[in-house]
Specification:
Layout: H1 2-21, H2 25-35, H3 40-64, H4 70-92, H5 96-120, H6 134-151, H7 155-166, H8 171-197, H9 204-227, H10 230-251, H11 259-307, H12 313-325
Protein name: Probable membrane transporter protein
Pfam family, one: TauE
Family: Belongs to the 4-toluene sulfonate uptake permease (TSUP) (TC 2.A.102) family.
């Protein structure tokens, strides 16, 4: 019973992360399942079976709010399903001794990506509205689907930033389309695992617990994203994934590091993680200050006669920015 409650909490937490970032449900939940000793292939199979339900609910919600581009869903989802099926087959045929470090290496790479991306870049808000080309989305979906199945997650971390970086879709439609197309990926990966493994190592109770947690978290995520900055959340989650999978790799037969070496590596990673979270928080505060200054500047232009601010809009904006940032401003005539 304790395990089922823990898994429900894992599903809830992973869905909160995914709902806030548009990625990392599989990476987060698979990392935690591996941490409690689950077989790598069974962990990925369990996650993808649960994702059939969570991605369906997420896709329907995004569709309802107009966040889905169905052309993009088709162009990336079908190749993604093919890649996921192949990835599930590959992972199912690897021995546990080989699969565990392979999956941890993939998850570690994705964790580093999340940590660096959200710490240094934050959330990309660009959009141009140009159509997405099939020759770009097809290979992207194939690779992202394969990584998703073999690593227990990766559809969002690979697909979302690649489409955002293209600058051709607004962020809400990128997240909505990726989340909706993930249903096809989860379905194909689950079929691949079931064909290769049967029901071996897959606990229906675990799948149900993860699913319940994810479904509960889906509406909460909409509230969470308004209160917890995605930039900070990305840094926090990225650090957890890096630390957990580094621990697995250092203890694997590939490396088999001694305790002093492991603890030294952990100490360095904790310091880097703490610095990343602090930097993300500071950058978030700066962004908020600039947004507030812009809003104040717009108001200042309208009320300058009443409170003595300069009539020129540019001067008003400069003065208000200085005030909001706490910088002394030279007297203006």
């Amino acid at each position: 019973m304790k395990t089922l409650v823990l898994l429900a909490l894992v599903g809830l937490g992973a869905q909160l992360v995914d709902g806030s970032l548009g990625m990392a449900y599989g990476v987060t939940s698979t990392t935690l399942l591996l941490a409690i000793g689950t077989n790598p292939a069974a962990a990925s199979a369990t996650i993808h079976l649960a994702e059939i339900g969570t991605t369906l609910a997420s896709g329907l919600s995004h569709w309802k709010f107009g966040n889905v581009d169905w052309k993009v869903v088709a162009k990336i989802g079908v190749p993604g399903a093919v890649g996921a099926f192949l990835g599930a087959t590959v992972l199912s045929n690897l021995s546990t001794e080989v699969a565990a470090p392979v999956m941890s290496l993939i998850l570690l790479s994705l964790g580093v990506y999340l940590l660096v991306r959200f710490t240094l870049r934050g959330v990309d808000r660009r959009h141009l509205g140009k159509p997405m080309r099939k020759r770009f989305l097809g290979p992207l979906g194939l690779v992202a689907g394969f990584v998703d199945a073999t690593g227990g997650g990766g559809w969002g971390p690979v697909g979302t930033p690649a489409i955002l970086a293209s600058g051709r879709m607004e962020p809400r439609k990128v997240i909505g389309s990726i989340d909706t197309s993930e249903f096809l990926v989860a379905l194909a990966a689950s079929l691949g695992f079931l064909f290769a493994l049967g029901s071996q190592g897959i606990d229906a109770g675990w799948v149900l617990a993860l699913l319940i947690g994810g479904l509960i978290a889906a509406p909460i995520a909409a509230w969470l994203v308004r209160h917890v900055p995605p930039r900070m959340l990305g840094s926090l989650v990225g650090g957890v994934i890096v630390l957990t999978n580094t621990r697995t790799l250092l203890k694997s037969d590939w490396i088999d590091a001694s305790e002093p070496v492991r603890y030294a590596v952990y100490a360095v990673l904790y310091l880097i993680w703490a610095a990343a979270v602090v930097h993300s928080f500071r950058e978030y505060r700066k962004d908020r200050a600039l947004e507030s200054a812009d809003a104040l500047a717009a108001d200042a232009v309208h009320v300058h006669d009443e409170i003595g601010l300069p009539a020129d809009a540019a001067d008003a904006a400069d003065l208000t920015r200085d005030i909001a940032a706490g910088r002394p401003s030279a007297p203006r005539d």
